[in-house]
Design goal:
By secondary structure, the chain is α+β, with helices and mostly antiparallel strands. The chain has six helices and nine strands; from the N terminus they run H-H-E-E-E-E-E-H-E-H-E-H-E-E-H. The strands form two sheets. The protein has a seven-stranded mixed beta sheet with strand order 1-2-9-8-5-6-7, with helices on one face. About 30% of the residues are buried.
Amino acid sequence: MTRGFGKVRAAASLVLSAVLIAGLAACSADPLAEQYREGDNKGFVASDGFKVVEIKAADREDPVAFEGVLDTGEKTTSADYAGDVTVVNFWYAGCAPCRVEAPELEKVHDAFEGQDVKFLGVNLYDGAEASQAFAKKFGITYPSALTTVDGSIKLAFAGSTPLNAVPVTLVLDKEGRVAARLIGQIEESSILETLVRETLEES
């Protein structure tokens, strides 16, 4: 009797697991970008914790002034990005979500080629060799600054967004002010592309 009950319970568990898996698959079929567009675009939080926060122009804080050293050895400062909408992505090579989102970032970078939009990666933990290897492997064509060489760039942005977990992506307006924060892995390039386009079109 006990053995028969155990078989029934095991079978019931398998059915329940199948139902849960099917339910999760149905949920994951909803495109993240569609969820974002259907919301009010303010404080959007996906089921996986990915968060988008837009900041109205009137509520933006002072421009972020920064300087750093790229993985090519060249120096860069916020003056190099003045007058452009700038996407700043914080990452490191051992970060699995960073690897997944890298092609999505490059898609947006390519989409705005020739326009007043620039991209800058900020590598939080790696040296130049690892940073360049990552860029080559994932087809990243924009530069990255290294906090291992000059940590001041991390400090410059510390007041604008939490950097205790990555990836984190910021969209800066043409004045260098933070216009949007994307916290977590970007799964759909259209979300970032929309934010950049909206910021670019601001008068």
